[in-house]
Fold this protein.
Amino acid sequence: MIVWLVSYPKSGNTWVRAFLSTYLHSSENKFDYNLLNKISEFPQHDIMNKFMKTEDFHNLGEVSKNWIKTQVKINLSKKITFLKTHSALCNIGGNVFTNKDTTLVFIYIVRDPRNVILSLSNHFGFSQEKSLKILTDEKYTIYPKNNAQLFPATHVSNWKNHYSSWKNCTSISNIIIKYEDLIADSHNTFKKIILFLNKHADIEYDENKLVKSIEATQFENLKNYEEKYGFQMGQKNKFFNLGKNNNWKSLLDKKIEIEINDKFKSAMKELEYI
């Protein structure tokens, strides 16, 4: 069965993925970039291309027809499989992204959208205005740019719809983690994740492994790792760049702040961002 790591882009998914891959797969609890391959991204080409032609990866409708087929194929291993996704929990042409028959649990990481904009701008080299258009676009879908990028289209939608689509799922056990809590109290927040997995996925809780894995994947350590070995995730600038300095109060244009607060008011109030 599948355990999802879910988030809107630039919300801390890679950080949690780095921590979990280190906790679960490193005997010495030391981070290595290759460990991230233990938690693949979905939709993934290496299984989905068994059901469809790679030239159809640009076609979201065709991709959606193969979401569940691919997940059923993954679950034939009879093992717990961790997968990362930025997809909304959507329904395209009657095809649901996932369901309780293929999914065991999901971990949803959410981040203040005012800081998401700054992170998007840094990652892609976009202006804040362009990042705002992405953040508020209900039809936002990530497409492969060319045939060399062999990944299927991923429907994201806007920040609020993405959050609500997963938050409102009551048929699958889940936990919602705020990026801000990961920063403010890393130990207890990552501990909360492992205890959740211990309860629902029979993942061993080991305090020593927890402490070492948190230390290995602290932001500064990941930043130093990138400086030494590189860390390419399609970004224009350094992947681990702003960190705690990504502060919308000092960096975000006031007009954009007002628009975000207005557009996402209900969800931001629910999450105590405003």
